[in-house]
Design goal:
heterodimer, A: mainly beta, 6-stranded mixed beta sheet, 5-stranded antiparallel beta sheet, 11 strands, B: mainly beta, 7-stranded mixed beta sheet, 4-stranded antiparallel beta sheet, globular
Chain lengths: ~110, ~110
Amino acid sequence: RKEVEQDPGPFNVPEGATVAFNCTYSNSASQSFFWYRQDCRKEPKLLMSVYSSGNEDGRFTAQLNRASQYISLLIRDSKLSDSATYLCVVNRNYQLIWGAGTKLIIKP
Amino acid sequence: DAGVTQSPTHLIKTRGQQVTLRCSPKSGHDTVSWYQQALGQGPQFIFQYYEEEERQRGNFPDRFSGHQFPNYSSELNVNALLLGDSALYLCASSPQGNGQPQHFGDGTRLSIL
């Protein structure tokens, strides 16, 4: 079993829909948490850090449940430009451990 | 404000050869991490350098080695290249401290023939 697991994709959704990504991690010693976005053949880019209190950045909302070792990302009012692979990342002892990513395809 | 820069962008090598990849961190960052990303997979942590020393290492063989220079730039060296080393190699920089978000360069795409 991988240390960070994400929903297998791809997700095909219409423009304007709400999309939810789920992620679980197995090591309770994980210290900090992030969502990254990666476009095809490009480098990963930090989308947002994830905090236990939950945090929001425009159309994006991230949640962390340490007890359940579960992380989520919600995208509201999805745009065509949101099409990308979304990667769940946990930090432990200076290293980032990555999920395999979930590909999102927004259709007009 | 320059971001993370990597060179070269693409490289083709043959089995058994050696390769050196280079990375300059984002201004103000002193910590450099290297990752290997195979197609369709998330990045895999190779190692992290801080204060010119390897601070943490992932599950990669000794063929993978690195260096950090006093100006915080870094090199990744891979010896005795195998076909399976073909991947995108990503460099990320961050400020000192565990758990800081990392910022990535464009990567070096390495192909082994």
